[in-house]
Amino acid sequence: MKFVFKHSRTQDIIELNVSDREIQNILADNLRDRLTCDCESVGETNCVDCNCEDYYDEMELQERK
Description:
The chain has 65 residues and is an alpha+beta fold. 31% of the residues lie in helices and 15% in strands.
């Protein structure tokens, strides 16, 4: 995938080509953070005890084919 950056003052242009694999590696942690559950607090406390974070921590992003 090609990304094009343009400097606002000098109008210089830099093109950056990034493969799918490189993009996946860059975004891996951010994408994992999007794996969330809808746990709700217990009663009138701020205590949330549903263990979904433990479950999602074991998820591994798979290579694109």
